[in-house]
Amino acid sequence: MAPTDSATEERTPTGGTTPPLIRFDRVVKRFGGVTVLDELDFSVAAGRNVTLIGPSGSGKTTILRLLMTLIRPDGGSITVDGDNLTHMVRRGKLVPADEKHVRPIRKKIGMVFQQFNLFPNMRVLRNLTEAPVRVLGMDRDEAEIRARELLEMVGLADKADAHCAHLSGGQQQRVAIARALAMRPKVLLLDEVTSALDPELVAGVLDLLRDIAVSGDVTLVCVTHEMGFARDVSDQVLMFDAGRVVESGPPEKIFSDPDHQRTRDFLRAVR
Amino acid sequence: MDWDWSYVWDFMPQILDGLVVTLKATVLGSLLAFGLGLVWTLLFRVPSRWVRWPVRAVVEFVRDTPLLVQLFFLFYVLPTLDISFSPLVTGVIGLGLHYSTYTAEVYRAGIEAVPRGQWEAATALSLPRTHTWVAVVLPQALRRVVPALGNYVIAMFKDTPLLYAIAVLDMLKQAQEVGAESFRYLEPMTVVGLLFVVIAYPTSLLIRLLERRLGTH
Prior knowledge:
The complex is a heterodimer.
Chain A: E1 20-31, E2 34-45, E3 50-53, H1 60-67, E4 75-80, E5 83-84, E6 87-90, E7 93-96, H2 99-106, E8 109-112, H3 124-134, H4 140-153, H5 169-181, E9 187-191, H6 199-215, E10 219-223, H7 227-233, E11 236-241, E12 244-249, H8 251-256, H9 261-270
Parallel strand pairs in A: 3-10, 3-11, 8-9, 9-10
Antiparallel strand pairs in A: 1-2, 1-4, 4-5, 6-7, 11-12
Helix pairs in contact in A: 3-4, 3-5, 4-5, 5-6
Chain B: H1 5-44, H2 49-63, H3 67-77, H4 87-112, H5 116-124, H6 129-159, H7 171-182, H8 186-215
Helix pairs in contact in B: 1-4, 1-6, 1-7, 1-8, 2-4, 3-4, 4-6, 5-6, 6-8, 7-8
């Protein structure tokens, strides 16, 4: 299928095109009578971190929630790593995907939430090992070794046995990032991960995410209001408004010389 | 009428036998109410309305009819259908069934109080649905409802004298027999009343303490 949007024409450094890791194809999402996404097309190449920017209500978070299968689209299809997340073939027909079809695809995706959403009934280490043990079938000892490595990476090695409620917001969010990474996702969705944090705790979390971004192990898809962070970590920035991509491009271009007036207005407002 | 201590010491063993029966009925009735209530709550959430609606109807019916009527039904009507239990077992079933309709509401509130973000995080980690219930949602919900369940245990404890009506040898029944033998009711009835206070009041303090402990987490 031919690319229909400038956002799909991202070039790799070598000049060729790689098959997209994520593709939205005429995706429609309505809430009640309100159309949040209106035949949205865009794609993300593997290893290319993407940031979605735009005014609130423009559908950015909806995109992440669709990818995480927390909600279902009302139209169109979504492909992740070559697998169709929204549809499957049954008796030669394309039908909406069921839970069984979605399950293996969903494992490739992780998400970090604005409100952390750690499991308060488990200690920190257990938060990190529960899914690898239950879902990936990892041996518990192995999962714990890996969890401790991740806690080390996020600077919380000494908190393995702490109760989540005893951690600061910034610490909780770093645990949540480690928890998502413990599943070794190909795509990590970051939904305004610093919005609920006290200002002095934001930097620690963003520094951690910068490290993860450059490591290249996982492709980040971020929704954020931190434009400095967006500029640092992303290879591609998509400007949304009213459920459509207004423009997309490398951060240097979008932040310093955007093509569209809407983008200029938005960036002026958030600065 | 004078208070006769020697009379009290004479009948005390008999009353304490009754107390043991009363406590047995309360503990077993509570366990049944805890288990059955959770079953109702989970059935309320079954997608099929052919399950949900009948369960709702039964629970609503049981909650809105008096416990005494239910006890009589279990005790006098079921045996005509060749289903009969001992008085105590009948009492435990009656108490447990009746109170399960209350505990079901307690659980429902507890489950609804678990933030949606917990379900979403479980989905984001690909945890299977049943595992999300068992490892994430229910532990959080149950923790919240412990104090409310405790209050129902106390209420049930105070309802156990109703079992007198189906010939369970509980505290009240024993006190009544003591009184009937000697035509003195002052001491046995006073002692029974005091025993209820002596047990119920510290228990409620314990629940309040528990509430505070669980709340600080």
